[in-house]
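call fold(seq) -> tokens
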Amino acid sequence: MKIESQTYQARRERLIQSLPDNTVAVIRTGDLCTRNNDCEYEFRPNSRFFYLTGFPEPSAYALINGKGETVLVTLPKDPEKEQWEGFRYGTEGTISTFGVHDAVPLDALDSVAIAVLDGAQQVAFPFDDEPLRQQVLQWRDDLASRARAGAIAPTQLLDLSPAISEMRLRKDDEEIALMEKAAQISVAAHKQAMRTVRPGMKEYELEAELNYVFMKSGSRQPAYNNIVASGHNACVLHYIKNDDTIDDGDLVLIDAGAEFGCYAGDITRTFPANGKFSEPQAALYQVVLDAHTAGLKELNVGAPYEACHNAAVKTLTQGLVTLGLLTGNVESLIESKAYRDFYMHNTGHWLGLDVHDCGAYRVDGASRPLEAGMVLTIEPGLYVSLDNETVDEKWRGIGIRIEDDVLIRADGPYILTHGLPREIAEIEAFMAQGREL
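ret:
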């Protein structure tokens, strides 16, 4: 499964058409990052760069002129380097494989950039890329110094990020196929965790089951650091130590997603280590599940983005009052944000090449209307701290989150992470079946 080179070319043309006339866009992918001494982390391309090029190698630059023609600057072919570090496309391979107008080796970057920028009125690049900013300013200054020779330097700098973010917010069919694949690999991994969990295991043993399924299914790595949180660890939202012992009676919260083709899956499930929810665990879980159901109903074309969150918050707050963890009028508790002692994050985020994907959530001061092709998560939760002495002891140390990936479609929301149990009875039955195998 891959995205065709023509798609990337069409994206670059759409991008440049969205910018003012006589603009050159410049973007880079980043370099290898040292882990320790002379060992590097495996390279993962910058998401914006990959969205426009599909090019997977480090130290690359793309320069896109006003016609949408692209020069890709790459590492050159080098048999000795490739003997140690692996295959490189080089300039010829880059042109033939990625459909760019031209490709040049990295040592020609400055001369090629200056030639492309000569005569442009604007140069657009991501303003949050400080090293690239410094390079662009140097190229502009070099051109300005050649004014007597007829060179014309750009006079305006534009931030490229908003335009790319708007494009990335709406997924095309090729992207959706990759994202459903990432989602379904993630589903398979969560099922494996539910089957294999046993009291007495270490959290990292359960994490190993996730990673095994990811790689076995074609995902080279997780989309983000796996969270495998047992017991009160589940109340730590970004718990990644994963080194505690899973005790009998614990709930296990797993927040983990596979990356496939650079696109992220993102799932959270919470289930009992021994296969059976206790009464307090089941009561809180049902509140979160009801909030998930209420929020999902709001994920329709034209609905404001925040409608899902508002519906989930109302359901969670009502549930907390019913169970006695909060007291008072539901609307007043929401207005005072009293629920935030138990629910302190939003009910979702955009999803795509980044697990927390780009795109504005508000437009012209209002919550953004949902559109077909947008993909987001829905992830209500409740977290009762061990130290919260305002509630009955039976609730303390329970952390629950339920998260799915949802594609907005004209005919209603489509859950990409379909097939993974959510209901209490479904989870217990699935886990019981796993223990029989």
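The CA atoms of residues 343 and 397 lie 14 Å apart.
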